[in-house]
Amino acid sequence: MAVDVVPTRMELIKTKDRIKLARKGHKLLKQKRDALILEFFKIMKKAKDLRGQLAAKMGEGYQSLALAETYHPLQEIGKVSLDLRKDIEVDIEVRNVMGVNIPNITADVDTTHFLEVPTYSVAGTSAKIDAAVEDFTEILGMVIKLAETETAMKRLILEIEKTKRRVNALEYVLIPRLEQQKRNISFQLEEMERDSFVSLKTIKRKLEKEKQAA
């Protein structure tokens, strides 16, 4: 929406200062956007690798579980899973990337090997169950790491989109509007100067005629 601005020298100076500030902000936001995009692609590559590793490990884990189910009833396997249940403490630290808090998730999982857990019956199980437990213990750690990268990607995407909107608003709306405002003020000031010059010339000629007549 157009705003009426009083065409004065002071307003022209203020408009030029606003343009300079807007251009500086535009440059900084573009740098921030580029840095965020670079960080996003780094994390995306990491997430892609983790997804591939997790998918492969999940395949191995389900194969181990299916093999264990052929040797043991489901109730027995379910009891083993309950006996090996662990409490997991998750510690989340953040690092700041261009104003975006990227989580760093550390999971404190009991590292005691399942064969050393008192509730795990070595005599009552088999190597088939052991293999399934081993696979899914590894899968748990991979899932936690993938959750960290996925969360970081989501936060970066949101900030990139927000920064892009600000860059576009400055580049295509605010700066062009301020430039047009500067041109309008300059044009009106030039018109006023021309009008004043003509008025002064007219007054001068009139005074000279009156002087000659006197």
Explain briefly what this protein structure is.
This protein has 214 residues and is mostly helical. The chain is built from three helices and two strands; from the N terminus they run H-H-E-E-H.
Verbal overview:
By secondary structure, this protein is mainly α. The chain has a single domain (9-207), classed as Helix Hairpins (Orthogonal Bundle), CATH 1.10.287.3240. Helix content is 75%, strand content 8%. The chain has three helices and two strands, in the order H-H-E-E-H. The protein has helices spanning 9-71, 74-83, 127-213; strands at residues 89-97, 100-108. A two-stranded antiparallel sheet has the order 1-2. The protein is rod-shaped, with a radius of gyration of 36 Å. It starts with 8 loop residues before the first helix and ends with a helix. The model has no long low-confidence stretch (mean pLDDT 83).
CATH architecture: Orthogonal Bundle
Quote the beta fraction.
5-15%
The strands making up the biggest β-sheet line up spatially as 1-2
Oligomeric status: single chain
Question: Class, according to the CATH hierarchy?
Answer: Mainly Alpha
H and E order = HHEEH
- Flag low-confidence runs: none
Kindly report the CATH topology: Helix Hairpins
